Amino acid sequence: MARGDLVSAPEPDQVHEVDADAPLDLTGDDQVDAWRGVKLHDAEEVSGGLAGLLRSRSRALLSDLVRPHRKAVAASAALIALSILSQLSVPWLIQRGIDDGLPPLLDGGSGSLRPLLTVVAGIGLATVVGAVSFNAFLILLGRVGQDIVLEIRLRLFAHFQQLSTSFHERYTSGRVISRQTSDVEAIADLLGHGLINLLESGLLMVGIGVALLLLDLELALVVIAAFPVLVLMTRWFRSHAERAYRETREAVALVIVHFVESLGGIQAVHAFRREPRNSEIFEHLDRRYRDANVWSQRLGAIYGPGVQGVGRLMTAIVLLYGSHLVLDGDVTIGVLAAFLLYVRRFFAPMEELSQFYNLFQAASAALEKLAGVLDEASTVPEPTSPVPLPHASGGLRFEGVRFAYRDRTVLHHLDLDVAPGETVAIVGATGAGKTTVARLAARFWDPTEGRVLLDGVDLRDLSETDLRRAVITVTQEGFLFSGTVADNIRFGRPSATAEEVERAAAAIGADSFIRMLPDGYDTDVHQKGARLSAGQRQLVSFARAFLADPAVLILDEATSSLDVPSERLVQHALRTLLRERTAVIIAHRLTTVEIADRVIVLDSGRVVEDGPPGDLIGGPGRYAALHEAWVDSLA
Q1: How many helices (H) and strands (E) does the chain have?
Q2: pLDDT at 45
Q3: Rounded CA gap, 318 and 172, in Å?
């Protein structure tokens, strides 16, 4: 990859994502320099930070999420307003205590304590009201934030499950995971911390500003004189913070890309002794990430103390000028004391707002990405008025089917009939279109042109429930989920009893090895079935399909990854599994073809041969050549 190429997807600083579709392939002595020049790009990236929430789909998503909680949000706003008013009343009460409560006591000590005690009681009441209302505000708004986060997670999970296979092949697993974790967490941080700080700091600044103007206009103008300096400092901070934020995202993404690639290809790394070179590259990238974080922290270390410095300077100026006014009799000591208390608190919220800006950048970018994902429509949508097919017989037909990946045509007007109960094997060279046929038959994709019909009904007119009950695919991976063996077999029919699970396993020939496992059917298979061999995993997959009892079974190279003994075991299971049901077998190994009633030979997306395997072997065609080559490979 040349320097400056676009790879991977940038994320907020806490988002760790790798785009597996764009691996970095860098070799040579200038490898570290090449990494330094790599730029990141993502079509979903939000530029300009605050511009993110201005986008229509982000705004629509946020509005939709907040709408059910409008009353709670309004109540939260009222509670924080009450808390702020209670806090702001304390300096005013202190002013009243100094100006109205102390003079009677200082005048010979014979005055009444009542005015001062009233002020003290008022301060105590304001403190209690402020604390209780703020506590209620935190609890209520925190609950709203968590409810919104829960809703986002549920929507994402449901939406990801509904999206078609083509989406998941295009949208890498790293991006899916970061949408469900890091992006959601960015919004959770905004709602859980940022929004609370924003409301509190914003209302506090407005309230203090009004209080200053009401206390003494002349002193308030002295404080306002500091605003141009604060505005310039804030603009400087925002400009540099955005750049530091982007640099941090780019740096962390490159660290993750290299980390995942190195460990993903660990066998090649060990084989070619790449550990020292990979460590050198990783050290450089990690230093870049560190430097970006140091830059960001340095900005905060300048801006925060800078605001504090301006605030303390203004406090000193107010004290000096206010004392002059007191001596001249223009203001009272109580007013000056209250004014100083207000000024002391006026500049602190600005630091909180700077922290909110960073959270807002991350959340706005995350919200735009989540909105983009939720706007994704399935390429195999559910029909609006599905045709009912409660009991399929298994007749499968392709009528003039053409399928293209973008601008590359894979199938050319395919016409194919598979009778109910017939087993058809589809063979051909790599890239001939075999897997495409399987995926169209299962409606993981829809044809570009033509129709695929089940019992005379277009698959696009069938409900998802009827289609998935009638057509099941078993792939070569034999994917197993974490859990017990019984759980994985029951995946084919969740309501099945233990006896039905065991009968399905026995019918396939898996019962004997399952009972030899440490806990039999209750044995945990571990992640992806790592506790079982490839052949055992495939037998469990077959038992799952047998229990589901589909009308059409599609085997997509289901034995291609097995050794010879395992394949023989699976072949026996296949004969049981395929009995009295329609089957489409995609096969590289021709041993699987032996159980087929009919063989279809594909070449460049076209049917070039069609007939019983015994007839085709004796002929001069493509299948005979494939069979001969396969026999020679076994010699």
Answers
A1: 24, 12
A2: 43
A3: 59
In the chain, what is the straight-line distance between the N-terminal and C-terminal CA atoms, in Å?
A: 42
Domains and CATH numbers, the chain: 50-374 (1.20.1560.10), 396-634 (3.40.50.300)
- Mean pLDDT computed over every residue of the chain: 79
Nearest to 277 by CA among 293, 289, 265: 265
Q: Which residue has the higher pLDDT, 539 or 51?
A: 539
Q: Is residue 257 within 8 Å of 18, Cβ to Cβ?
A: yes
Q: Are 292 and 247 in contact (CB under 8 A)?
A: yes
Beta bridge partners of 452: 398
Q: Give CA–CA dist 360/373, Å, rounded.
A: 20
How much is the pTM?
0.68
Cα 604 from chain centre:
38
Contact 367, 45 (CB under 8 A): no
Check: CB of residue 538 under 8 Å from CB of residue 478: yes
pLDDT at 634: 63
d(CA 283, CA 291): 12
| C-beta of residue 552 within 8 angstroms of C-beta of residue 471 | yes
Nearest to 10 by CA among 197, 201, 256: 256
Task: Identify the CA nearest to 224 among candidates 236, 212, 240.
Answer: 212
Question: Which tokens hold the place of 152?
Answer: 């986002």
Residue 560, pLDDT score: 58
Nearest of 582, 624, 583 to residue 601 by alpha carbon: 624
Burial class (CB in 10 A: 0-12, 13-18, 19+), 31: middle
From residue 46, how far is each of 53, 63, 93 by CA, in Å?
9, 19, 47
